[in-house]
Amino acid sequence: MTPSLQKPKYTLWLMPDPVSYRAISRIISSLADTFGAPRFKPHITLAATPDIPVADLKSAAKSIASNLSTCKLSVEKPICGNPPFQRYYSELSPSDSLLNAANVADTFLGSGFAKRHSFHISLLYGESDCKDLHNEFATISSLLPSKLYVQSLALFETSGNLEKWSQIYSVKLSR
Description:
Blueprint: E1 10-16, H1 18-35, E2 44-48, H2 54-66, E3 71-75, E4 79-80, E5 88-93, H3 95-109, E6 120-124, H4 130-134, H5 137-143, E7 147-157, E8 166-172
C-alpha cells in the first residue's frame, strides 16, 4: 500500500520591518534556548490559504500586497496564552489596519481564510509554564520594540514540524 501524500499547508504572514525583525528574533532565540522550544521567524499571521497551486498563491500574495500599505503597529506587553502557538506573545494595535489587510486577503483568497481577531506576534511556542515565563517578563519587555512597521507579505509552507516551515515567497507592500 502506498502512503498518501498530505498536501502542504500554506500561510500568509505579514512581516515586520528589519529592525523590529532582528529585535524580536533575538527574543525568540533567547526564549527558545531558555525553555528548549523551537525557533521561528517573527511574523503576524494574516491568513491560511485555499488548496490551490503555489503559483496561484504567489499571484494572490502579489495582488494582496499591491493593495496594502505599510503600517505602524503598537506592540503591547507580552502575555502568556494558550499553548503551543500562543504561549507567550504580544498583541498588536490598531486592529483596523490589520482588519483591512484581512479584508484585502479575503478578496483575493476567497471569504473566510483571513484572520479576523487576536492579531499578535508570538515570542515563544511550546508548553512552558506561565509561572516560569513570568521570570522573563521584565527582560523581554525591555527588549521588545514598542512599535513595529509591517512592510512585506510572505507565503510560508507551514506543513509538518515547525522546524520544516519555510518561506517560499515574499513581496513588499506597495502602497
